[in-house]
Design brief:
Chain lengths: 240, 240
DNA sequence: TCGTACATACGAACGGTGTTCGTGTCAAGT
DNA sequence: ACTTGACACGAACACCGTTCGTATGTACGA
């Protein structure tokens, strides 16, 4: 990436365009730019106009390479799914490996702000999301889980990961600084605790007696809790 | 509801307004109207302008009663939660009752199109969603489930219901007619099956061998499957 | 009964959105 | 050198959430 800003136009070099040597537009650079905006400002900031502006052009230019905003979102989702690393399959350790993949998928998805909103309720079609599904299905089938159960398990597992990331994204909000956790706690958690504590105890007797447990649990704890229950349940369908 | 359309204005009755005897605007009628639009055309159709138009006024008038569109959405969500019927608590049947509530919540949420998108990732604050939470917590605590586990369980359960309804909403789309199921099958399921069948078997060997199981399972089957696993997992934390 | 004060209603506008159309421009093929 | 076809993009359309200032009807005090 050379930086020619500040250089005057050489004489005789009639600029062939307003922006000389324009970068070739393509679906890839559009998705790239979308990911940059996403990571910096969240999914709602990823608009056609914003991405076009970032590329130094207008929104109409994008539609030659991306069918619609939703299609761009799906391409971004598959791009993110490409970052999910899969271990070498080891059928003997299928439960551990399924948990590994779930954690890894959660980590990657959560690292891209609220991108998970796209994947929840979207039918997996991209090559990378299918790659994950194939891995999980192979693991389950290798463990002797029936087809019907394996199919439902993969669906439910993806749903669980997506939903958890979405829930986590409404807190964090994306600010990942050194004292981000403290700020989040003060600004988000504390008001909720106060609200719950102020609830009428005669109407919600059990709830007000559990405020600490309700607002206190870490997102990681809750994820691991649900994942463990789910995997134990699946294991009950395995032979042996 | 009388119908005075077609009647001329009686002489001497100067209309006090352009729309005589205007109905009083209030948060309640705004939420009512929002629910009507939601049920008819889906959440995306519920815009400030659309609701205002339905009420024969402009969008600015709504802001005297509802703080923002998001607040309207939350009010609508709580209104829907009011329709969830809870059984008489019976601690001895806590597992069955928890399943009952989950099914009932799913039924009600699904009957309002994609309203579930609002509730996923929203902190429960409305009186009606808190009423559900209180019921579930009381049931779990009554069964001897530890506070920490019970808190995570209701969180996860609500998340599961919401995510399932959202996933279901991208199919159905809301069209609930006599032959709706057949149409959905032809227009949505069949293309997906075709796409999966056309996938390269060398890259996705396990997946292409399970197409029927992947696209075939009913939404109800899958929900019951996950719910059963989850409740069995929770039960393992109960004493006895 | 009249005048005033107040809460509500709302027209108009601001700055944004996704998407389409028609035109313009470039580079490769003949 | 000329044609052709793909791509870029300015302008516009029809929406969106939200705010501001003004108009209006009602209730109340004098």
């Amino acid at each position: 990436m050379s930086d020619d800003s500040g250089m005057p136009t050489p004489p005789g070099h009639r600029p062939r365009r307003a922006r000389p040597a324009r970068r070739p537009l393509s679906a890839d650079v559009i998705v790239d730019t979308g990911m940059r905006v996403l990571d910096a400002e969240g999914l709602d900031a990823v608009t056609m106009r914003r991405v076009a502006q970032e590329l130094g052009t207008g929104p109409a230019s994008l539609y030659a390479h991306v069918g619609s905003k939703d299609e761009l979102y799906e391409l971004m989702h598959d791009r993110a799914a490409a970052q999910i690393r899969l271990p070498e399959p080891d059928p003997a350790r299928w439960r551990e490996q399924l948990a590994e993949v779930a954690f890894e998928a959660r980590r990657v998805l959560a690292s891209h702000r609220d991108l998970a909103r796209v994947s929840l309720g979207a039918i997996p079609v991209g090559p990378n999301v299918l790659r994950i599904a194939e891995f999980q299905l192979a693991l389950l089938r290798g463990a002797g889980i029936p087809k019907r159960i394996a199919a439902m398990a993969v669906d439910t597992l993806a749903m669980y990961v997506d939903a958890d990331v979405i829930e986590g994204a409404i807190f964090g909000g994306g600010a990942t600084g050194p004292d981000a956790e403290r700020t989040v706690h003060e600004n988000r958690i504390e008001p909720i605790r106060a609200y719950f504590n102020a609830l009428p105890p005669d109407r919600y007797p059990t709830l007000v007696g559990m405020v600490d447990e309700l607002v206190g649990g870490t997102s990681d704890e809750r994820f691991e809790f649900g994942l463990d229950i789910f995997l134990r349940g699946i294991a009950s369908y395995a032979p042996s």
